[in-house]
Amino acid sequence: TQYKYHICCMGAGYVGGPTMAVIASNCPDIRVCVVDLSKRMIDAWNTDELPIYEPGLLEVVKSARGRNLFFSTDIDAEIQKADMVFISVNTPTKTTGIGAGRAANIKNCELCARKIAEVATGPKVVVEKSTVPVRTADAVRRVLMANDKGIDFQVLSNPEFLAEGTAIADLQKPGRVLIGGMQTDKGKAAIQQLVDVYAHWVPTERILTTSLWSSELSKLVANAFLAQRVSSINSISALCEATDADVHEVSRALSFDDRIGPKFLTASVGFGGSCFQKDVLNLVYICESLGLQEVADYWYQVIALNDYQKQRFTRNMLQRMFNTVTGKKIALLGFAFKKDTGDTRETPAVFVAKALLDEGAKLRVFDPQVSREQMLEEFDYTCGVNETTLPGLTTSDMILTMEDAYTACEGAHAIAVLTEWDAFKTLDYKRIYASMAKPAFVFDGRNVVDIAALRQIGFEVYSIGKPIQKNQFI
Ligand code: NAD
Ligand code: UDX
User: Fold this and answer.
1) In the predicted model, is pLDDT for residue 439 greater than 80?
2) CB–CB of 334/421 below 8 Å?
3) CATH for 5-202?
4) Ranges of each domain in the chain
5) Residue 457 near residue 429, CB atoms below 8 Å
6) Matching Pfam families, A to Z (predicted)?
7) pLDDT tens for residues 271-302?
């Protein structure tokens, strides 16, 4: 088959996989190959059991796989073939060394640049898809240009704005595509090559071009603004609970103001996901490094408030349940960081679960997309909780993963709703109530349950930012 253009994407994760699948399905004239160091990931992408859960993804992958979409571990050969190479690798927060806990580690990006410089036999456009600290493109460019073959590379920044759970819809109809590049003739030509790819399906007025630095920074700022909205409404949820105001009514009142708008005003147990915390901390670190302490302090509050919100939720559970949960069974409904994904990175559920384990509770967890194995991995990764630090974690009945919500709730003293899966709205709560210890508590961290209906059944219900139930026995 004759392809007009060849794209290689390094990194077959939550971003690389879906993004390239959508490019391939919209551009039959372009050959797209996604490569990864992880054979496990690549093998899974080549089956119908994809390595990530995302609504609509399998259909898109199937529409192009084998036609012009390929997944491979042959990184060198695929780089050599490509006119354009995307770098879509993970850039996690550093855990040790300078900037530990804040700065993003761009080691993987640099390794990709080194790999490209090493194996390339001709000029290429290299596209930063990963979220990176502003000015990373400088480092990537210098590493590439240090090749001893005299090959010319152009570097572009093309941050990704998809959200998990809606990745396919976001990619098919993006609010905007942002492309940053050098403002030289060659730089502008490279920008045009990437514009031409997206123009296959994205209206050109939605394709924005900027300098490299504006593009890199805009991604961090976009996530900081979104996270800030969630922390803002979550701060108000605490005030609502203290005053009998209803956070839902407050959000609704705000949302009718065109200047504020309706989105990202849902109070919750706290935001999670691999991006918000990492990217806000990254922004904070950059500001600190540049001596902009006030700016750093301002954005740090978004994280501090999110930590407060997660702690507040568990403290409330404890306090309402007579200041002890020791030995009590607690059902956790949902473990993913939001609905319609199986991703557990930075999920608030892990913090709530850890706090309850510390209090001696017995957890019964149900999430339609999260396996027990992954849950335990997340405990270990996020809070260092594993069989060694907490004997019995995996072998006793400290945490059991259940097949469905009903078995999770059986005999439980309380239910904590931690992910807003639609299915949790329509459970048979009468049946659940009958099977629980009394008083039966519901702590809704996502405002999914019908408070009035549940109180009618007999539950004692506490939802984020909602007026507190007056205790009928006082
Ligand atoms: P991920 O961990 O799901 O996937 C990254 C993949 O890169 C892994 O499979 C890993 O094996 C591979 N990899 C690492 N180093 C490699 C190398 N040298 N060569 C080849 N493959 C390599 O990460 P992700 O969620 O896809 O995120 C990727 C980037 O996109 C991050 O910078 C992230 O901040 C950003 N981002 C993520 C989202 C999201 O919703 N997850 C949204 C927008 C932007
Ligand atoms: C986010 C950005 O939205 C996306 O543009 C970027 O590319 C990656 O980071 P993601 O983390 O996948 O996407 O999901 P998002 O929908 O933004 O939710 C993040 C967290 O905030 C979730 O835990 C979600 O439950 C929480 N959230 C979101 C709220 O608590 N309230 C809201 O109103 C919105």
Assistant:
1) yes
2) yes
3) 3.40.50.720
4) 5-202, 212-474
5) yes
6) UDPG_MGDP_dh (PF00984), UDPG_MGDP_dh_C (PF03720), UDPG_MGDP_dh_N (PF03721)
7) 999 999 999 999 999 999 999 999 999 999 99
Does ligand 1 come within 6 angstroms of the Cβ of 158? no
The letter for the amino acid at 350 is: V
Amino acid at 436: M
pTM for this prediction = 0.96
Tokens, residue 260: 């504020």
* CB of 20 closer than 6 angstroms to any ligand 1 atom: no
pLDDT at 323: 97
pLDDT for the residue numbered 2: 85
| Sign of the torsion angle spanned by Cα atoms 452, 457, 463, 465 | positive
**In this structure, what token pair is assigned to residue 295?**
């700016």
Binding residues: 11-16, 36, 89-93, 130-131, 164, 275-278, 345
Question: Residue 340 Cα, ligand 2 centroid: separation in angstroms?
Answer: 12
Average pLDDT over residues 176-190: 97
| Tens-digit pLDDT profile for residues 153-167 | 999 999 999 999 999
Any ligand 1 atom below 6 A from CB of 119: no
Q: Does residue 162 line the site of ligand 1, with CB under 6 A?
A: yes
Q: How far apart are the C-alpha atoms of 336 and 253, rounded to whole Å? A: 29
The span from the CA of 128 to the CA of 140, in Å, is 9
Question: Of ligand 2's atoms, which has the minimum distance to the CA of residue 160?
Answer: 7
Query: Mind giving me the DSSP string for 127-184?
Result: EE-S---TTHHHHHHHHHHT-TT---EEEEE------TTSHHHHHHS-S-EEEEE-SS
Decide: 220 in ligand 2 pocket, CB within 6 A.
no
* 116: CB partners within 8 A, 6+ apart: 79, 85, 124, 126, 144, 153
Per the listing, tokens 């920044």 go with 157
| Mean pLDDT, rounded, for 436-465 | 97
Q: Which ligand is nearest to the CA of 162?
A: 2
Supply the pLDDT for residue 148: 86
The token duo for 36 is 């990864």
Residue nearest atom 20 in ligand 1 by C-alpha distance: 36
Binding residue numbers for NAD(+): 11-16, 36, 89-93, 130-131, 164, 275-278, 345
Domains 5-202 and 212-474 share a fold: yes
Residues annotated as part of the active site? 275
pLDDT at 468: 85
Which helix (H) or strand (E) element contains residue 340? Answer: none
Classify the complex by whether its ipTM is higher than 0.90, answering yes or no: yes
The residue whose CB lies within 8 Å of the most ligand 2 atoms, and thus the one to mutate among 19, 216, 230, is 230
CA distance 340 to 419: 9
